[in-house]
Amino acid sequence: MQLRDGRCTLEDGFLVDDVPLPDDTLALQLLEEFREVVFRESEVVGQLRLGLRCSLVYRLDDAGESRLASRLRHCMWLTPAHSSIHARQSTKVIPTVQYGPVRTSSLPMKLYLSIVFNIERKVSYQRLRIDTRVVELTMETRKVQLSGGTTFTVSLPKVWATEQDISNGSVLYLHPDDDGTLLIEAGPRQESDDRTVRLDVSTYDTEMILEAAQSMYLVGTDELVLVDRNGHDDERIAAAKDLTTKLSGLEVLETTDRRLVLRNIMDPASVSIRKSVLRLKLIVLSMHRDAVRAVTDNDPALARQVVARDDEADKLLHLVTRQFQCALEDLQTVEQLDTTRSRLFEQYHAARQFERVGDHATKIARLVVERTDDLGEIDIEEFDRLADRSRRIVERAGDVVLSDVDARTGFDILEDATELAEAVEKLDRELYDREDAAGAYVVGLLLDSVRRTAAYGRNIAEVGFQRAVLTEEAPESSC
C-alpha cells in the first residue's frame, strides 16, 4: 500500500516514512494520512506484539525550540463476523504505545509510534483507525496531600490520564521498586495472557524454521504455530523435536500435515534466574577445566566430551535470556521472579559472559581434537598455570555478582585480569621467533582463549563493582 503522495510504503507489516519534514505542521499532515489504514490479507501476518510503526524524520527551522509529540490515543479494530481477533478487550484494543524523542534539536530526529497487539490468526480484512493529536510531554511534579488524616493522595497528569482512558472508578496497578520509584500501570490486568504467534513457513527451509522458532522462544512466545500450506515433511518435524531438547520448557504439542505447534510449558515463577546462572557458571568452569586438562594430557576423548556439553550451556543461556526479555516487557514477571530489573540485568550480563567462557572452552577442546600434532610447541606448565588463573578470575567474578561478595574482591579481580593479559601478551610475542609456524599458530589460539576467558571474568566483575559504587560499598582509592 502506498499513500497518495507515494512517499510511504507498507513493508512486512510496517508503515515507514523517511522523508525530511521542515516543520511540525507537515509532520501532522503526514500523520493524518495514517488515520485510516486498510491492510489486506497478503500484507498482514500475525506477529508477536508488533503492529504498526510510523517513523517520521523531520528537521526544524528553529533549532531546539519546536516540539513534536504525537500519541496514539486509541485504536479500534473493525472486522467481519467471520474474523477472529485475539486481543485484551474483545474487538477493542488498548495498545501499548512506544514513542521516540519529544524534544528536538538542530539535528534530524526520528519519532517512532508503535502499536503493540496480538493476532490469533491471519484474518482476511482489517481496518485500523488511529486518532492522533499533539501534546507536550514533560516531567511534572505533584504535591502530596493528606486526606482524612491517614491517606496520602496525589493527582495524575490530565493528558496521560485522558490518553489511557482513565475515568472515575478506573483501576490502576502500582508497582513499588526498591530504588524508590513507583510505576503506575493502566489498563486491564490479566493473570494469564498467552503470547501466541502464527507463522506461515511455506517458503522457509528447515534451518530458517529453527531460527524463527528459537527467536520466538527468546522473546517470550508461549505458543508458536508453524503453518505450511505444502505440508511439513519428516525432516522438519524431526528437527523441531530436536529443538525442544535445546530449549528449556519447549514441547511439541501437535504435528499434522500442515500444522506444527510448539509450546512453552514452563512457569516463569518456578524458574530462579540466579540459580540458573549459578548452574551455568559451574558448567562452563567444569568445561574449561576439562578442556585445559585435555591439552596438558593430550586427551582427544576428554576434549570431545567438552564439545558435547556446550549445548547444555547454551540451553541455560537461552532460558535466562527468555526470562530477562519477559521481565523487560511485563511487570508481573519481575514480581513473580521476586527480584529487580537491575539485578536481572546483572545476572543476564553474567550469563552472557559465562556462555562465552564455555565457547572458548569448546574452542580449546576442538583444537585438541583437530590439531593434536601441533600441540608439541606449547609450554604445558605455563599454559596450565595461566589457564587456571583465568578460570579463577571468572569464578571469583561470578561470586561478586551472584553471591554479594565484598566489592574489594571485584577490584582485585580487575587488577588480576590486567596482569594476566600482560603475561599472556608477553608469552604470545615469544611465538614470533618459533620456526614451526603451524605449532605457533595453535599455541597462539590457545593463549587467546585464555586471555579472553580472563576478560569475560573482568566484564562480570565490573558489573558488580559498578553496583558497589552506586551503593557506596566500593573501596577508597589509594591515591
Show the helix and strand layout:
Elements: E1 9-11, E2 14-16, H1 24-33, E3 36-40, E4 53-58, E5 70-78, E6 92-93, E7 96-99, E8 109-116, E9 125-134, E10 145-147, E11 151-153, H2 158-163, E12 173-176, E13 182-185, E14 196-200, H3 206-218, E15 223-227, H4 234-244, E16 250-255, E17 259-264, H5 273-297, H6 300-308, H7 310-329, H8 331-337, H9 341-370, H10 380-402, H11 407-430, H12 437-470
Parallel strand pairs: 14-15
Antiparallel strand pairs: 1-2, 3-9, 4-8, 5-6, 5-9, 7-8, 10-11, 12-13, 15-17, 16-17
Helix pairs in contact: 3-4, 5-6, 5-7, 5-9, 5-10, 6-9, 7-8, 7-9, 9-10, 9-12, 10-11, 10-12, 11-12
Which structural traits does this protein have?
flat; 4 domains; Translation Initiation Factor IF3; single chain; four-stranded antiparallel sheet; 479 residues; 17 strands; disordered N terminus; 18% strand; alpha+beta; 12 helices
